């Protein structure tokens, strides 16, 4: 990565469209998507780290900050040799104020896109995603309720921390409209 690489934070509750829009943007030249959910789901479920992550996320709770940041930095270091990256999209990190402060201290976070969506729409999307992708973290409504509660608990602190870098987006609109708004903020 070069010094000009910008980090974009996609902040929002589960099902708000972070992954959908990150994947769409990462299909464009110069964009890379790091999904912490995919990093966690990609761990060997029989390893000690994989087991501990599964224990925590099975109830909709957050993976401890130190482990999350360590796994993120490992994933980011895999990109360090790439020179044609203009934007790295962070999806699922930061999830706490500690993570936000740590990342902002070390890295150049240029934009924080706050994805906002009605709870009913989120639930509908999660059910659909659960059916299409067979994601275990989407299949239990109690776990989803806890994930939403945990997100709400930390989101306001993260938004306040990043202040003027935060751009709120209504992601209940058509995906193409949201994508256009994202691109307009980056041009």
Structure description:
This protein has 187 residues and is α/β, with parallel strands linked by helices. The chain has one domain (6-186): P-loop containing nucleotide triphosphate hydrolases (Rossmann fold). Helices cover 54% and strands 16% of the residues. It has helices spanning 18-26, 36-41, 48-57, 65-77, 97-106, 119-133, 136-139, 141-162, 175-186, and strands at residues 6-11, 31-35, 87-91, 109-116, 166-170. Strands 2-3-1-4-5 form a 5-stranded parallel beta sheet, with helices on both faces.
| Number of separate domains | 1
Order of helices and strands: EHEHHHEHEHHHEH
What is the H level of CATH, i.e. the homologous superfamily?
Answer: P-loop containing nucleotide triphosphate hydrolases
Biggest β-sheet: strands ordered side by side in the sheet: 2-3-1-4-5
CATH topology: Rossmann fold
Beta-strand segment tally:
5
Task: Give the end-to-end Cα distance, rounded to a whole number of Å.
Answer: 20 Å
Give the fraction of residues assigned to helices: 40-55%
Major beta-sheet overview: 5 strands, parallel
Contiguous uncertain segments of 5+ residues: none
- The outline comes out as globular
Strand pairing plus helix content: what structural class?
alpha/beta
Radius of gyration: 16 Å
Helical stretch count? 9
At the first level of CATH, the class is Alpha Beta
Strand content: 15-25%
Q: Look at the structure and give the mean pLDDT.
A: 91
CATH architecture: 3-Layer(aba) Sandwich
């Amino acid at each position: 990565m070069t010094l000009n690489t910008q980090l974009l934070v996609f902040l929002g509750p589960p099902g708000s469209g972070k992954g959908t829009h990150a994947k769409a943007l990462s299909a464009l030249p110069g964009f890379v998507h790091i999904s912490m959910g995919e990093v966690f789901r990609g761990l060997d479920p029989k390893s000690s780290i994989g087991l501990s992550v599964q224990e925590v996320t099975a109830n909709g709770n957050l993976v401890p900050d130190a482990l999350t940041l360590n796994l993120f930095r490992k994933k980011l270091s895999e990109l360090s040799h790439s020179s044609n990256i203009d934007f790295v999209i962070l999806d699922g990190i930061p999830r706490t104020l500690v993570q936000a402060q740590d990342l902002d201290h070390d890295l150049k976070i240029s934009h924080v896109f706050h994805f906002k969506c009605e709870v009913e729409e989120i639930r509908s999307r999660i059910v659909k995603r659960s059916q299409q992708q067979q994601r275990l973290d989407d299949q239990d409504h109690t776990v989803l309720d806890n994930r939403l509660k945990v997100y709400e608990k930390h989101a306001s602190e993260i938004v306040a921390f990043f202040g003027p870098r935060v751009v709120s987006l209504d992601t209940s609109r058509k995906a193409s409209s949201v994508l256009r708004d994202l691109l307009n903020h980056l041009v």
